[in-house]
Design goal:
single chain, alpha+beta, Thiol Ester Dehydrase, Chain A, seven-stranded antiparallel β-sheet, about 30% strand, globular
Length: about 180
């Protein structure tokens, strides 16, 4: 499989920038950069995004997040899709550790308690196992008292940069 950092030749500028983002920071910092500036989960330039800030923690990743009025489902409670977005994006940060591009094939969530708005949460994600191109991932979201409020598992599949270039080409040809 091609390493993400080696897979930039021949791609357009946006994809090149995005692929380069998956290189591990060399500064020794545990802070990880956003996937790209407009990412719904972590992009600082996305006014509708979650602006997730993630750092390495051992072999996994950790983030702190508070859902706000943009993420409301039932009154006072975060929409399940907003919670899923944050967990899926957190899984994407594990790709910095493996240095390869991958996509979500399956995402499963167990909502164990209501995820409240304006309440701080801590999220942890780890690679459970790898089998060829398949990564089995697990995440948990905890409230300030350490209670698990959500658990996620995912199957990510390693892909080459051409997967994204072809998807963009298909979208442009259909518009």
């Amino acid at each position: 499989m091609g390493k993400a950092s080696d897979a930039v030749s021949g791609s357009d500028a946006d994809v090149k920038e995005w692929v380069r983002s998956f290189r591990l920071p060399e500064s020794g910092s545990t802070e990880l950069p956003p996937h790209h500036s407009n990412c719904l989960g972590c992009g600082p330039a996305n006014p509708h995004g979650h602006h997730l800030s993630v750092r390495r923690c051992g072999d996994g990743v950790v983030a702190h997040h508070t859902f706000d009025e943009r993420h409301v489902g039932a009154p006072g409670i975060a929409h399940g899709g907003a919670v899923a977005t944050v967990i899926d994006d957190l899984f994407g940060f594990l790709l910095y550790s493996v240095g390869e591009l991958a996509v979500t094939r399956r995402l499963e969530l167990d909502y164990l308690a209501p995820v409240l708005l304006f309440t701080p949460y801590t999220l942890h994600a780890d690679v459970r196992s790898r089998d060829g191109r398949k990564f089995s991932l697990v995440a948990r979201m905890f409230d300030a008292e350490g209670r698990s409020v959500a658990k996620g598992t995912a199957l990510f599949i390693v892909v080459e940069v051409e997967h994204f270039l072809q998807s963009q080409a298909n979208a442009w040809s259909q518009s």
